[in-house]
Amino acid sequence: MSQLKLANSEAPFKTYEDCLMSLMCESPSSDCYFGKCDQCPGSEPLRETLENLLSENYIDEVTFKQWTDANCRLLLSQLTILSKAS
Q1: pLDDT-derived band of residue 59, with 50, 70 and 90 as boundaries?
Q2: Residues 6 or more apart in contact with residue 83 via CB below 8 angstroms
Q3: Domain locations in the chain as residue ranges
Q4: Cα radius of gyration (the chain)
Q5: 63 - beta bridge partners?
Q6: CB 79 within 8 Å of CB 60
Q7: Is the pTM above the cut of 0.70?
Q8: Nearest of 79, 21, 11, 82 to residue 49 by alpha carbon
Q9: How many Å apart are CA 3 and CA 24, to the nearest integer?
């Protein structure tokens, strides 16, 4: 599978760890890892980057798997249809 790239740039994420780290401070503390840091960028910048990445690469459907049970006993396949911004 080839890497998706934003126009005129390299792939913003090479691994899922890159995505997770983008949610936290550059030098994360234990508060960052537990979602208690009010300085972390949060999910909005990641969401915007992914929306741009998908849009620029003409991707309008995303299929993924998600654990739905607290004990990770149930793995469901999900399909998300991305809507165009009005």
Answers
A1: confident
A2: none
A3: 16-81
A4: 15
A5: 79
A6: no
A7: no
A8: 11
A9: 23
